[in-house]
Structures are given as C-alpha cells and as structure tokens.
C-alpha cells in the first residue's frame, strides 16, 4: 500500500510540474500576414512574453522560407547583441529594430523584392524558458503602381470630369436659349393680339 501512495504522489507531482512547465513557456506574438510594396522597407514585428525575467542569455533567431518551400534560410540572430547575416539574400538588407527591455525582437527588411515572398519565423528562447510558441509572419510583396500608371489614371479621370462639365454647360446653355426664344415668340404673339 505504501508503494502505491508514493507512486500516486509522484504522478500528481509530475502532472503539476508539467502544467507549470507549460505555463512557463515563452509566447511569441507576430502579425500573421504583412503586405508590402516592392522596393520599400518593412518592419516585421515580433514580441514575446515569458514567465521569467529577460535573461542576459536571451536568444532570438529569425529564419525565412520562400514560397517555393525550399529550405529555411537564416535572416537574423540576437544573443546579447544583434548579428546580421554574413551571407545570403538578406545580407546588408536586414536591421535590428527591437527593444529587449520591452520584449520586442522586431527587424526591418530593406528594399523588398518579389523573391522575398514567403514565411518569416521568429523564435525566442529566454533561459530558463526555452520552449514555447514560434511566431510566423507571411510576407507578400506586391508591385507598386508606377508613376506613369498613376499619371494615366489622373489624366483619364480629369478628362472625363472636364468632358462632363462641358456637356452639362452645353445642355444648360441650350435650355436657356430655347427658353429665351420661346419667351420672345410669346411676346410677339401677345403683341399681335
């Protein structure tokens, strides 16, 4: 009987420790999808919460998986200080924009290109909290409207507006002339009587 009591206590303690472990995990928060214009810069926001104070051994890693689902590529790494990628598509195009004191581990991607379409993953480990959620941001880079397209649209709308004003003005002038002619005929008819 004594062995069963000990086993039951161990199981209860194990369940409580497991619940405590799940509650102590790092939670990472990101926007699910971001749309940006080709050639612009975009901040990829990533924040986290942890049951432990922010550690000096905080680890942050950003990775990228292109839309074609090829292998993940490193984008950025933080451990006591930010580390830019030494090579790859994001070399010289990514900047740290986070604030560890505010649990913000965001980055900025510069000069976005259509090849940047894909999923960015933000992972945070705040020792002793090393487990938890991983944040994902799906980035869609869209083509910007060129100046000539905007110019063409403005000219088309402006021309249509001017044409409408001319038509309305012509209709009003025609009605006024008809009214004057009718009034003149009525005056002549009244004078003949």
TrEMBL record:
GO annotation (BP), single: cell-cell adhesion
Membrane-crossing residue ranges in chain numbering: 150-174
Gene3D superfamilies: Immunoglobulins
Keyword terms: Disulfide bond, Glycoprotein, Immunoglobulin domain, Membrane, Signal, Transmembrane, Transmembrane helix
Domain Ig-like: 24-140
Topological type in the membrane: Single-pass type I membrane protein
Residues in the signal sequence: 1-25
InterPro entries per UniProt: Ig-like_dom, Ig-like_dom_sf, Ig-like_fold, Ig_sub, Ig_V-set, Myelin_P0-rel
Superkingdom of source: Eukaryota
Subcellular location: Membrane
Pfam families listed in its UniProt record: V-set
SUPFAM superfamilies noted in UniProt: Immunoglobulin
GO CC terms of this entry: plasma membrane
PANTHER family, A to Z: MYELIN P0 RELATED, MYELIN PROTEIN ZERO-LIKE PROTEIN 2
Family from the record: Belongs to the myelin P0 protein family.
Protein name per Swiss-Prot or TrEMBL: MPZL2 protein
Provenance organism: Orthonyx spaldingii
Lineage start: Eukaryota, Metazoa, Chordata, Craniata, Vertebrata
Gene: Mpzl2
